Amino acid sequence: MTATEPTPRIGPPLTAGEREMLRAHLDYHRATLAWKCDGLTDEELRRQASPPSTLSLLGLVRHMAEVERHWFRRTVGGADVPHLWSDERDFQAAYDASGSTRAEAFAAWEAEVEHARAVEAAAESLDVTTYIVKWEGDASLRMLMLHMIHEYARHNGHADFLREAIDGATGA
User: Fold this and answer.
1) CATH architecture of 18-167
2) CB 25 within 8 A of CB 12
3) How confident is the model at residue 4 (pLDDT cuts 50, 70, 90)?
4) Model pLDDT for residues 54-103, shown as the tens digit of each residue
């Protein structure tokens, strides 16, 4: 999306199969993050609205690109790909968007979302499991999709506050 095109958000279905429901909720939250960034300049997207925190809308987009990459490409897909913005595997580095642009951050995030969709679609079922070192156990694709919905929902709450501090825009 460009700064002038509104991000379409399609609410998840009220009835559907489990996998379709998880996909729809995840896509809704992805679209919500993009929607919170609609119409803002690069400078506004980089604005750190709550000092001393470096958190910004663009930082959230970069962070979610890193998170998508980690859970879908690395964890489920088994790809050996580096972090996008850190040589030290630091997820927090993505939050520093001080030198970033909408084009750079959104290109990376949109590419990772497409990879994530492909990895999820290729999985035989939601019951596919992978070992999660941090959690010290196996987790299913179902759990990872729920975790991603939670991750987006939490960060979309941050995005609400950041956007309101920039231009007063509110909305769910």
Assistant:
1) Up-down Bundle (1.20)
2) yes
3) low
4) 899 999 999 999 999 999 999 999 999 999 998 888 888 899 999 999 99
Q: What are 106-112's contacts with CB under 8 Å, separation 24+?
A: 106/1, 106/34, 106/37, 106/61, 108/62, 108/65, 108/84, 109/61, 109/62, 109/64, 109/65, 109/68, 111/65, 112/65, 112/66, 112/68, 112/69, 112/72, 112/73
CA atoms within 13 A on the CB side of 21: 8
Give the chain's radius of gyration (CA, Å): 16
What single-letter amino acid sits at 142?
R
Dihedral pair phi/psi, residue 137, rounded to 5°: 180, 175
Tens digits of residue pLDDT in 99-132: 999 999 999 999 999 999 999 999 999 999 999 9
Alpha-carbon span 126 to 112, nearest angstrom: 20
Q: How far apart are alpha carbons 123 and 155 in whole angstroms?
A: 26
- The residue ranges of every structural domain in the chain are 18-167
Rounded Cα gap, residues 115 and 162, in angstroms:
28
pTM: 0.93
